[in-house]
Amino acid sequence: MRLLTHNMLSSNIKGVTNGFPLRIEAEKVVEKQVDLNIDFLKNMFPKIEWKALVSASRTMGYAELPEEVEPSKLDSEEFLRKFHHALLELHLEEGALVCPETGRRFPVSKGIPNMLLHEDEV
Amino acid sequence: MKLKHLESLLGRLQQFSNPKVELEQYPTGPHIASRMLYTAENSFGDVSDKVVADFGCGCGTLGVAAALLGAEHVIGIDVDPESLELASLNAEELELDIDYIHCNIKNLGLRAEVVDTVVMNPPFGTKKKGADMDFLSVALKVASQAVYSLHKTSTRNHVKRAALQHLNASSAEVICELRYDLPQMYMFHKKREVDIAVDLWRFVPQSRI
């Protein structure tokens, strides 16, 4: 699972008011190269929850993203490459996503998070 | 990519070996899937460089088609783990990088705005009434540009009314009518092959700005 997916996924357990962002427990991270698509990144940037992406990428062992970022950064190819890497090339292969409110773990196996809810959670 | 090439690549995908009747698992054949995504791309520009989600992806055909047509990020979502395993294999076979999420569409927590386009071949709701409308309801909340979906032609008026009046679609148009060749997959199918008319819909969600 890419961090772009993580950046839109939340815990939807009944009663949880803010299930985003899910905390990551990373057991295995893999990297897969993707061609740089600058227009896509520029278009995506305003839609990204930046803090969630920075903290997720750090948990995955990539600490190159700045905490705060000005939109003017989008003119820097060096910045775009880092953004691209964090967003599209890092994959959580094994581990878990954890609900920030309840601590409920959603296991990730073979890159697929299991977000199924139990009967008493819906 | 030409339509014929897309259809032939989709024809190589593995289909369900043990379809689950309670989930109404009918595969989306290469003929329909290729036309659906080809139209979304070439008539509306809703696929290439976009974020596309495939709801109830099954063995992954629609998502694979989106990725082949240049979607930048594709997410397939299904409640059935065996389908997801098959979908992953299919994507891998074609060297496509697709994310999968194991989840019931009804309980999906996916924030709006990031996904541009949702594509889906929802359960028609014959086994579980309303299942198709549940899918459509979530799709119209998640997609920011368009939702492409297949529904039985016999339900056309109902789908249109529900989408516009209750599910906040700003438009709901049938793009074309297709024949769904349903091979005899389940014991309750009496005829060897059932041919049903389905509509390919394009729904536009209401702008959230």
From TrEMBL, chain A:
The organism's place on the tree of life at top rank: Eukaryota
Gene Ontology terms, MF aspect: protein heterodimerization activity
Stretches assigned to coiled coil: none
An example Gene Ontology biological process: rRNA (guanine-N7)-methylation
SUPFAM superfamilies: Trm112p-like
Listed InterPro entries: Trm112 (IPR039127), Trm112-like (IPR005651)
Quaternary organization: Interacts with TRM9.
Family in the record: Belongs to the TRM112 family.
Name of this chain's protein: Multifunctional methyltransferase subunit TRM112-like protein
Native source organism of the sequence: Rubus argutus (Southern blackberry)
Lineage: Eukaryota, Viridiplantae, Streptophyta, Embryophyta, Tracheophyta
UniProtKB/TrEMBL annotation, chain B:
Any matching Pfam family: MTS
Ranges where the Methyltransferase small domain occurs: 48-130
Classification via CDD domains: AdoMet_MTases
GO MF: nucleic acid binding; rRNA (adenine-N6-)-methyltransferase activity
The organism's place on the tree of life at top rank: Eukaryota
PROSITE patterns in alphabetical order: N6_MTASE (PS00092)
PANTHER family: RRNA N6-ADENOSINE-METHYLTRANSFERASE METTL5 (PTHR23290)
Similarity section: Belongs to the methyltransferase superfamily. PrmA family.
The protein's name in its UniProt record: Methyltransferase-like protein 5
